[in-house]
Amino acid sequence: MSRIFWLASYPKSGNTWLRVFLANLTSEGSRPVNINEMRTGGTASDRNLCDDAFGVESADMTEEEIERYRPEAYRHLTARSSEILYIKIHDAFTVASAGEPLVPPEVSAGAVYLIRNPLDVAVSFADHLGCTIEAAVEKMGSEKAALSVSRSGLKAQVKQRLLSWSSHVSSWLEQDFIPVHMTRYEDLSLRPIETFTAIARFLGLPGDSDRIRRAVDFSTFEVLREQEQAHGFRERSPKSPSFFRQGRLGVWREALTPEQTARVIDDHGPAMRRFGYLPPADRI
């Protein structure tokens, strides 16, 4: 039986970047891994994963029933595998309707949690959802926020409860079921070697400097964007013209209105201060 390392984040916070790095770190190739052929364990909300574990089509189940049985899907997955799995997850760390964590502690080795300035998240999230920044900011502040909610037709992923951005962060970082290594998106950009090395060590992966540097070089935003332009990216939202857009820090300064900026800070100020996105209250 294997165990799972969860690669957890609120959407548009660097999860794909991390998975590309891990794919390149574990590859012996002399060129970057194809972004459409990453082998890091899959996605927690993949409907096919759930169907395989449930023994019944999830299309015939309610969203509440699917959520209740999702922990069993991860037990099923690890029982059939002999390797450590690195699985992407955007769900908040919640307790399922059956009274147990959505992420079963007994099959979980730990989680890397990626956090990004919510002001920048709002810009990328709006593009991903194909909505206005105003609507994205509203969603980020809602405790009822979710992804892949079925309104018409069957989606490739099952419903994922996000909660608000602040609650998503605290749900992962304040739970005590599994160990978590928190990483800021900004540190991946500003201090990539040091930051990715720390992640590799937490995951028990090779951490020698030459191998880390090669994986970092193969995972730059420029490399990812070139691959998407040449071959497309199957994880791109159909509502967005591209997945790898800019990757710059502080893009919110050009994209958000003063009112939108104030709304994000009003909604998430305490968490933003905690992780260095705002100055401490006594220094304002």
Tally of structural domains: 1
Number of strands: 6
In angstroms, what is the radius of gyration? 19 Å
* Global geometry: globular
Per CATH, the class reads Alpha Beta
CATH superfamily annotation: P-loop containing nucleotide triphosphate hydrolases
Strand order in space, largest sheet: 2-1-3-6
Helical/strand content category:
alpha/beta
> What can be said about the biggest beta sheet?
4 strands, parallel
Average pLDDT confidence is 87
| Relative strand content | 5-15%
Spatial separation of the terminal alpha carbons: 52 Å
Q: What's the architecture in CATH terms? A: 3-Layer(aba) Sandwich
What is the CATH topology classification name? Rossmann fold
Unreliable residue runs: none
Q: Report the order of strands and helices.
A: EHHHEEHHEEHEHHHHHH
Helix content: 40-55%
**Separate helix tally:** 12
